[in-house]
Amino acid sequence: MNEALPIHCVALSGGVGGAKLALGLSRVLPGDALTVVCNTADDFDHLGLRICPDLDTVMYTLAGISNRVTGWGQAHETWSFLEALSHLGGETWFRLGDRDLATHVERSRWLRAGETLTEATDALCRALGIAARVLPMSDDPVRTIVLTETGELSFQHYFVRDACEPAVSGFRFDGIDTARPQAAFLSALEDQATRAILVCPSNPFVSVDPVLALDGVEEALRRAAAPVVAVSPIIGGAAIKGPAAKMMAELGMPVTAAGVARHYQERDLLDGFVIDDADAGQAAEIEDLGVPTLVTGTVMETLADRERLAGETMDFARGLGARCGDRAGTSPPERFA
């Protein structure tokens, strides 16, 4: 690896778990050295406003204003709007706090004025004092549809309104065939200054797969000179937060860190994988997939946990880069030669 090049990291993120690692990365890297690309297939229009749950969770976390109890929304939230809406008989299944509401109003105003989601996100990040670059995966709409035993559900209806109760049989990403990856996102994957591409510990099916499904993204990851390293969202057979483990079981997959690694490596995407100490016994199985594995503590309860995991993951990725060399233009079977 050419150490004269500046260190830059691209992180692919969903909501809570991804935001925790993104915060750690923002603490161990200079602000201009981190690009966080957020899933937007969870986005939806509600009460006339554009809601972007994963983008907002990442922004609030990086800005230091996230609600650490719920994992979503802002700290010190109040609920006057929702209470008034309830009295009027409005839809209250998706909880919009008063502070959070301001973000959605401003974003929707910019979008109606003809600004892109990227431009609206950039304006919000500047207002919140966020140094890292936060990008939507696309400026074009993509919507996750969850296929369940009770029929098709939009993701937020499945996740929030129905509390993830219906059994899952698959997923569809409406709009993915015509959606274009955000231009700066693709450029960052191809940039020689990018020294690590991290897949955060987010839900592999509904947070990461929509990003990977965008036209050209998987190819760009395979061509990238930087190593691609994923952090497992499954620890000891369970997800810290969210329905990833439940989805894996319902899809007939082993609910293990190795199962997540296999999900990604079936598409030949990984150069490294990070698992928790609790899953150390799976390291050999993952390495049999051709994926070097780092075993460490991946539960991020404190800010120190986030910083430590971010630093260890970056060191691991840098080591892979030095060992594997520049893989740009390498065909997939040669990546681990």
Overview of this protein structure:
The chain is built from 13 helices and 14 strands. By secondary structure, it is of the alpha/beta class. Strands 5-2-1-9-10-13-14 form a 7-stranded parallel sheet, with helices on both faces. Strands 7-6-8 form a 3-stranded antiparallel sheet. The chain has a two-stranded antiparallel sheet with strand order 3-4. The longest helix has 22 residues, at 303-324. The protein is globular and about 60 Å long. The two termini are 17 Å apart. 45% of the residues are buried. Residues 1-5 and 322-337 have low confidence and may be disordered.
What structural class results from the helix and strand content?
alpha/beta
Please give the share of residues in helix.
25-40%
Shape by Cα distribution: globular
How many extended strands?
A: 14
Order of helices and strands: EHEEEHHHHEEEHEHEHHEEEHHEHEH
**On the 0-100 scale, what is the average pLDDT?**
92
Strand order of the largest sheet: 5-2-1-9-10-13-14
Main beta sheet strand tally, sense and closure: 7 strands, parallel
- Count of DSSP-assigned helices: 13
Content of β-strand? 15-25%
Short description:
The protein is α/β, with parallel strands linked by helices and 337 residues long. It contains 13 helices and 14 strands.
